[in-house]
Design a protein that fits this description.
The chain has 401 residues and is of the alpha+beta class. It is built from eight helices and 20 strands.
């Protein structure tokens, strides 16, 4: 081990979780925080996301993560002199069937009890707040005015600058290769450029977290799946300052304003998990036709751009926050795991804050994480928790072998 190559904390992954976690750890007083990024910072899903941010979670914990994240985005300019471009647009989560409506109304009650200002809108009320929405084909939905969106590339710039100003040592093109342990306790990490002595490591990695876990001797039930996003050409109906975002929850289709048109995104639940390599044009066109039925102004509009990215997910659509635990059930002292469960923009800063708290202090006051650790998954990767009901329809298994 090179003399002097040591850290108070090593963060694996330079995406949204790793970048903000490193910043928070430095703010907490750690003098030497090192971030390992095998590519370039923000080169994965962090710069290719849709940027939607909502506090309308399906559980009290995810409501808390969303609320904290929105507050954080709002305060960035004052705190860091830069920001992620958050815009408050409002978010309408549609109900299409009577069953959707019953479930949605029950969620609203839970969310209100969790402190969120959210209401149920009838179909007519939904069309009043979003005039581009078709009058038929839905039953209204839940609505929170404070939800919104950020600009993902701007977010990467924001946390890159924040890390730089807090003195974080960012090592790009430096792959994590494993842990160094003595008597079950962390003493260092191995990297492609040599070992680093440390007693703390925070494992992030988004869609690659499962592979990172394998290198660390952990079984992490997180996977990657193709996510597709497209932006239509402009239309006068969308050239407005504010219009609520909409989520057709049952179909896993969402949309929001972007560049005078609509940005819309989706994931296909029947796909095998794995790395996204190309756009699935037939599925994208299918979802575009669905969008045209719900937003008539989209009919006949061309696409300005379309892309796909590999986005992370967990089988229960909930974050992973807790200590490293081996398949044998042994806890690795000094090792912490943080995954947003497919909600990097939505919960990212809050997940990063909790991850940093756990790595630095061994506890957090942001929310109760007792049920969110690796020990909730069995040997086949099945979670004992019910899935968060407000999520894209990702595959039910993270296994892509």
């Amino acid at each position: 081990m090179a003399v002097g190559d040591s850290a108070d904390l090593v963060v694996v992954g330079g995406g949204t979780i790793g970048g903000w976690a490193a910043t928070f750890a430095a703010e907490a007083g750690l003098r030497r925080v090192v971030v390992l990024e095998r590519g370039l910072v923000g080169g994965g899903a962090s710069s290719r996301a849709a940027g939607i941010v909502r506090a309308q979670g399906g559980t009290p914990a995810t409501v808390a993560l969303g609320r904290w994240t929105i507050d954080f985005y709002r305060g960035q300019q004052a705190r860091y002199g830069t920001d992620s471009g958050f815009r408050e647009l409002g978010y309408l989560i549609l109900a299409v069937t009577a069953r959707d409506e019953r479930a949605g109304r029950a969620r609203v009650e839970m969310q209100r009890q969790a402190g969120l200002d959210v209401s149920w809108l009838s179909a007519a009320e939904a069309c009043a707040v979003n005039p581009s929405l078709a009058a038929a084909g839905h039953r209204g939905g839940s609505y929170a005015t404070t939800d919104g969106a950020i600009d993902p590339p701007r977010n990467v710039l924001a946390y890159s600058l924040a890390m730089q100003r807090r003195g974080v040592d960012l090592r790009e093109r430096t792959a994590f290769e494993g842990l160094r342990l003595e008597h079950g306790r962390l003493v260092g990490v191995d990297t492609a450029r040599g070992p680093i002595a440390t007693e703390r490591v925070l494992l992030t990695g988004g869609p690659t977290l499962r592979g990172v876990g394998k290198l660390a001797g952990l079984r992490i039930s997180a996977g990657g799946a193709r996510h597709q996003i497209a932006v239509t050409e402009p239309h006068p109906a969308f050239e407005v300052e504010r219009q609520p975002m909409v989520f057709d929850l049952g179909r896993g289709l969402y949309w929001r304003l972007e560049e005078g048109g609509l940005l819309f995104g989706m994931s296909n639940p029947v796909e095998r998990p794995g790395i996204a390599r190309e756009i699935d044009w037939p599925y994208l066109r299918r979802m575009q036709r669905r969008l045209e039925r719900l937003v008539p102004a989209v009919r006949g509009l061309g696409l300005r751009k379309a892309w796909c990215a590999t986005i992370d997910f967990t089988p229960d659509h909930q974050p992973i926050l807790g200590p490293g635990i081996t398949p044998a059930g042994d806890r690795l002292e000094g090792v912490t795991v943080a995954s947003p469960g497919g909600h990097g923009m939505m919960w990212g800063p809050a997940v990063a804050r909790v991850g940093a708290d756990l790595a630095v202090h061994g506890r957090t006051d942001l929310l109760d994480v007792a049920e969110l650790g690796l020990d909730r998954f069995d040997a086949e990767g099945r979670s004992r928790l019910a899935a968060d009901p407000i999520a894209l329809p990702f595959p039910l298994s993270a296994d892509d072998d």
